[in-house]
Amino acid sequence: MLVSTPIGNLGDISERARAVLAAADLVLCEDTRRTRRLCAALGIRARLASLHEHNEAARIPAILERLRQGRLLALVSDAGTPLISDPGYRLVRAALAEGLGVHAVPGPNAALTALVLSGLPPSPFLFLGFPPPQQGQRLRHFRAVRKAEEAGLSASLIWHEAPHRLAETLQDLAATFGEREAAVARELTKRFEDVRREKLPALAAYYAAYPARGEITIVVGPAAEARPSELETVDETLEEALKTQSLRDAVALVAAGTGRPRSEVYARALAIKGARKDVAPAGGAKSPEPKKPL
Questions:
Q1: What is the four-CA torsion angle of 261, 219, 195, 10, rounded to 10 degrees?
Q2: How far is it, in rounded angstroms, from Cα 254 to Cα 236?
Q3: From the centroid of its chain, how far is CA 202?
Q4: How many other CB atoms are found less than 10 A from the CB of residue 116?
Q5: I need a labelling partner for 114 at 20 to 30 A (CA). Which of 92, 194, 195, 197 fits?
Q6: Residues 131-176: pLDDT tens digits?
Q7: Are 107 and 76 in contact (CB under 8 A)?
Q8: So where are the chain's domains?
Q9: 199: part of which helix (H) or strand (E)?
């Protein structure tokens, strides 16, 4: 049983989650100290065992054997919904592969809570976990997402981040995504909950001056869609360029002149060339005249 636990406010524990934790033969948790404090606060005496990224693979066989025996096992993360940026995925896959039942007790989730408080489009969204801690890898990660946007992705983007890396991560986001609307959600459901909504450069400057504390989620708004008039201008310019230029040269010329992503211009150029092939010659094709007998 995958059991969601509070991300801050203890009042968010559900009656069903409380009942499952109380009835479980064993509660698997990331950090037994944190889960023990939670159980104590709920008045629950539970048997706990650690399950984290370093021991998950080794513990799976014994856990599966307990499940085969009909034992009730609960899996919790330190906070929120299990498996979301937390261990447990490999265990779930192994249990499903053996036909063992897997069920979930839904509840709090920091990413979704931040999204609905951000004021940014709630659907579609893409949750990307924690960005890489090293700047070089982090920038490559952000650029890969930006490439996906250039290829057509349009979604609100969600990351978790550690407080000591927040300012530099926001700087890298601003360098990659520019003047994008964003929100930084901190200490959600707790006493000092705070959601700051500004453009990425402003958020980067703020948290460089005022270092953050606590649990943090970043939400970045989707890429702006090109207005029809902009696309029409691109198509008209491409039409003219393709009369005298090769496909490659026309794409390079129009992308540089309009500021649109090269991949987008290339896709529209292919569409224009394809449309030209589909258009029959004016008046229709003539049937060949039959040959006269000699």
A1: 180
A2: 10
A3: 22
A4: 11
A5: 92
A6: 999 999 999 999 999 989 988 899 999 999 999 999 999 999 999 9
A7: no
A8: 2-108, 111-220, 228-278
A9: strand 194-199
DSSP 8-class letter at 111: H
pTM of the model: 0.76
Q: Which of 238, 271, 239 is nearest to 252 (CA)?
A: 238
Tokens of 80: 């929120």
Q: Which residue has the tokens 């509840």?
A: 107
Among the four given CATH numbers 3.40.50.300, 3.30.950.10, 3.30.479.30, 3.90.1440.10, the one describing domain 111-220: 3.30.950.10
Task: Name the nearest CA neighbour of 250 among 276, 268, 232.
Answer: 268
Cis, bond preceding 124 (omega within 30 deg of 0): yes
CA distance 94 to 71: 16
Find out whether 128 and 219 touch, Cβ atoms under 8 Å.
Answer: no
SS3 of 125, please?
Answer: strand
The backbone region for 65, taken as left when phi is positive above 0, alpha when psi lies in -120 to 50, beta otherwise, is alpha
Both structure tokens of 282: 């004016």
Write out the two tokens for 221: 């708004």
Classified by CATH at the fold level, domain 2-108 comes out as Cobalt-precorrin-4 Transmethylase; domain 1 (3.40.1010)
